[in-house]
Write a sequence for this structure.
C-alpha cells in the first residue's frame, strides 16, 4: 500500500486495522517488550499457573505480537489462541509460536472464537472495544465451566469508569496491582455472573 493510501485509510477513514498495522510497522509498540512492562505479564503468568495448572486452553484477545504467550511458555498451556486486529502484529506473533498456538486476525467486537477456553485474557486491550461490557460478556460464552476472564487496565483518568462499567457482569475472584517506573496496572480475575 502506498503512503498516501495508508494515510487516507488511517487519518480520513480512521480504519482501525490500518492504524494499528501502521503503528506496529513503525515499531511504535516495541516498548511493550521492555522491562517496565514485565510486571503485568508476570502477574498474568502467575494467575494462569495458579488457577489452571497443567495444560489449560487459553485465549488472548488483542494479543499483539504474542508477548504473553512467549512469557507463559509452552509447558503451561495445552492450546493458546491469540486474536488481534493488526496483521503485522499477528505475523510477528506467528513467527515465534509453537505448534500449540493459533494466531488469528480479527476484531474483538465481532469475532467468534473456535471452541471453549479455561481462560480468556484481555491484557491492555479492553479500552479499544466499542462496548467493553458486551465484549467481555460475549467472550464469556466461550469459557468452559469454571472458566475465568483475566483483564488488565492501566491506571489513567478513565480507568475507574471503565472498571465500573464492567463490574456488574462479573464476580471478582482476585486482583493485583503492579507499579513500575512507567505505569500502574490493575489486573483482575473475573468470574461471569
Ligand atoms: C496496547 S496493545 C496490547 C498488546 C498486548 N496485549 C500486550 O499487552 O502487549 C493493544 C492491542 O490491541 C489490539 N486491538 C485494538 N483494537 C482491537 C480490536 N478491535 N480487536 C482486536 N484487537 C484489537 C491492537 O492491535 C494491539 O495489539
Amino acid at each position: 500500500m502506498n503512503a498516501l493510501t495508508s494515510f487516507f485509510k488511517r487519518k480520513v477513514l480512521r480504519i482501525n486495522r490500518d492504524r494499528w498495522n501502521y503503528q506496529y510497522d513503525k515499531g511504535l509498540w516495541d516498548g511493550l517488550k521492555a522491562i517496565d512492562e514485565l510486571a503485568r505479564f508476570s502477574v498474568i503468568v502467575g494467575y494462569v499457573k495458579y488457577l489452571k495448572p497443567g495444560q489449560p486452553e487459553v485465549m488472548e484477545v488483542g494479543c499483539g505480537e504474542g508477548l504473553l504467550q512467549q512469557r507463559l511458555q509452552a509447558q503451561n498451556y495445552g492450546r493458546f489462541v491469540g486474536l488481534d486486529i493488526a496483521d503485522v502484529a499477528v505475523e510477528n506473533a506467528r513467527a515465534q509460536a509453537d505448534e500449540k498456538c493459533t494466531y488469528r486476525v480479527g476484531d474483538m467486537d465481532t469475532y467468534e472464537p473456535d471452541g471453549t477456553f479455561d481462560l480468556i485474557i484481555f491484557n491492555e486491550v479492553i479500552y479499544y472495544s466499542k462496548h467493553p461490557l458486551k465484549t467481555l460478556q460475549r467472550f464469556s460464552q466461550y469459557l468452559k465451566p469454571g472458566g475465568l476472564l483475566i483483564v488488565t487496565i492501566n491506571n489513567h483518568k478513565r480507568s475507574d469508569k471503565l472498571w465500573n462499567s464492567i463490574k456488574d457482569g462479573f464476580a471478582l475472584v482476585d486482583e493485583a496491582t503492579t507499579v513500575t517506573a512507567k505505569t500502574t496496572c490493575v489486573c483482575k480475575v473475573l468470574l461471569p455472573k
User: Anything to note?
Assistant: Residues 16, 20, 32, 62-64, 67, 83-86, 89, 107-109, 123-125, 128 surround S-adenosylmethionine (CB under 6 Å).
